[in-house]
Give the backbone structure.
Amino acid sequence: MTTLLAGDIGGTKTLLSLYGLGPDNQLNLIHSQRYRSADWASLEPMLQAFLADTADGAERPAAACFAVAGPVQHGRARLTNLPWQLEEKALAAATGIAALELVNDFAVLIYGLPQLGGDQQALIKPGRAEADQPLLVLGAGTGLGVAWGLPGVQGLQALASEAAHGEFAPRSAAEWELKQWLMADLALDRLSIERVVSGTGLGHVARWLLACHHPAGDHPLARVSGDLPSAVAAAAAAGDPLGQEALALWLAAYGSVTGDLALASLSRGGIWLAGGTAGKLLESLRSPAFLEPFAAKGRLQAVLDPMPIMAVIDPAIGPFSAACRARMLMS
């Protein structure tokens, strides 16, 4: 059986997976192993150990793709939070896998999106996807990831992006006040989009509202010491007015940015929302709080209206997408 090696390489953890190709060319997960990245001097010995554990007399994987938490350029990558320097040729030599590629861990999602099954995604907004048009994926997690996919004669080509670090543009008096407060609070000369549109950003919005309305710290959210964004979402779901206000402002900013980026690339192939917030806030993302700002682009609303929006709800989308890319490398 033909097998493929896929990896999701991060500063804290690395997930390696072995997939098999069935007779219909579909991916079937054979084995997956999670490693603590800091326990290894480099990726090469980790890969060799994984391949030795899963060999079982089989041939080496036909291709491999590794999603890397950092920029990839000319086949090289350096992880932001780990002293590993990755190089495609060195990894190919260490594993004996000639068809091997490093891809940014968000851009790699582009290769998995068209292959997602019904249990891996959920509908946010119906529409009509055009197969020969660009795709857009955004992911509001700790930060905000953005990537595009361009169809071509050899399939999709993923384009990594730093669009999340563009300037946050307030659309209302409340967003203007939020921006000024955050720049002062975080001692910034400028405010990027992901400072607001991210899971962390939801916490920032709540902190601003708490400073405005509860400066004495007399609100329950002011006493949260752990995951403030999750606490805000839970408070909103329970009917807390401040939690609801924070979530509504955040959803509006997220929706507006999604519409801006969809127009920038004319993403008629579809829009996917990924990241840790997508599966947790499905009903909120389906609400007018997100969808109306998405569409509110004046004369260009008619361009956005046909574009479908999906949410990625599979937590293993990273390795799955890397496996999809590895399968492409065989052709």
